[in-house]
Amino acid sequence: MMYLLALIVPPLAILMSGKPFQSVFNGLLWIGGLLFILLPFVAGQAAWGIAVIWALAVVHGRRSEARDRQLVEEALRRRG
């Protein structure tokens, strides 16, 4: 679900991943890209694509961090 949200509304996906400052900058990039897509500029498509890729990377990183945290906690429980 978060990956779909990252494709449709990247700033919201980043915000829901717990990164509010990145969300603001991504939102500016995403909105700028959308505005330039309406005009015949290639830069708008590039900006929109960068915002989406950024959001996908943040969402993927959040899942990886949660998995790593769980593995560390499990290893500490076994050890101690």
TrEMBL record:
The chain crosses the membrane at residues 28-59. It comes from the Bacteria. It comes from Falsiroseomonas oleicola. This is YqaE/Pmp3 family membrane protein. Keywords: Membrane, Transmembrane, Transmembrane helix.
